[in-house]
Amino acid sequence: xxxxxxxxxxxxxxxxxxxxxxxxxxxxxxxxxxxxxxxxxxxxxxxxxxxxxxxxxxxxxxxxxxxxxxxxxxxxxxxxxxxxxxxxxxxxxxxxxxxxxxxxxxxxxxxxxxxxxxxxxxxxxxxxxxxxxxxxxxxxxxx
Length: 143
Known about the structure:
Blueprint: H1 3-26, H2 33-59, H3 69-85, H4 89-113, H5 119-139
């Protein structure tokens, strides 16, 4: 496994962890049943891709990458502050759309940065980008 493949898989896995952390963070504030179903659906999709990345890295004897603890803590604090002020459905959807946009941008940058990555890691990253795009489009109905 070359270095670009390892780095791309680590970033993809880290992105999945960030997404699932964010989704799980907003769940207690979510009251709309349709949004709850949507969040659960996309949480599962992120977990599935993250598990695939994790398994490939582990089979190659490589460690995965966790999102930086400071960044996670600041994101969690910011989200909780925003939801304490306004926890309506549209605010939750807005936060998730913003997260999807960040994920799409980051993953697209990593695809271009790690050009020598193998086809499997590229495919997983492209799959995750598609998941983020689909999630964002479905969330727009809740804005």
